[in-house]
Amino acid sequence: MLLCEQEYCKKLHAAIDKIDEERYDIEAKVQKADKEIEDLKIKVVDLVGVKKPALKKVRMSADAMLKALLGSKHTVNMDLRANLKQVKKETKEEDCQSSRWPQQGSSC
């Protein structure tokens, strides 16, 4: 009876070994197929190209932009017109008198 059980165990181990070899071969084929699929996906993306979404125009002041970038720490006011000099407009007659050469199309 002991011989019969040992024989049965040997057959069982042989069957397990055979199934393990088949499982290993199938796993190798699956990994190879997965790698090939990934390579093909990359080629498709390269051929088609990556679609960039259309950007929308956003009207934002310099203050709002700095506040968005820096958060609530932003306290500097970016009023660019505040630092400009005030220039008085001169009349056209004074321009004609001060210029050395008469300009074409002018009434001087």
Automatic annotation (TrEMBL):
<keyword id="KW-0175">Coiled coil</keyword>
<comment type="similarity">
    <text>Belongs to the troponin I family.</text>
</comment>
<keyword id="KW-0514">Muscle protein</keyword>
<dbReference type="Pfam" id="PF00992">
    <property type="entry name" value="Troponin"/>
</dbReference>
<feature type="compositionally biased region" description="Polar residues">
    <location>
        <begin position="98"/>
        <end position="108"/>
    </location>
</feature>
<keyword id="KW-0009">Actin-binding</keyword>
<comment type="function">
    <text>Troponin I is the inhibitory subunit of troponin, the thin filament regulatory complex which confers calcium-sensitivity to striated muscle actomyosin ATPase activity.</text>
</comment>
<protein>
    <submittedName>
        <fullName>Troponin I, fast skeletal muscle</fullName>
    </submittedName>
</protein>
<feature type="region of interest" description="Disordered">
    <location>
        <begin position="89"/>
        <end position="108"/>
    </location>
</feature>
<dbReference type="InterPro" id="IPR001978">
    <property type="entry name" value="Troponin"/>
</dbReference>
<feature type="coiled-coil region">
    <location>
        <begin position="16"/>
        <end position="43"/>
    </location>
</feature>
<dbReference type="InterPro" id="IPR050875">
    <property type="entry name" value="Troponin_I"/>
</dbReference>
<dbReference type="InterPro" id="IPR038077">
    <property type="entry name" value="Troponin_sf"/>
</dbReference>
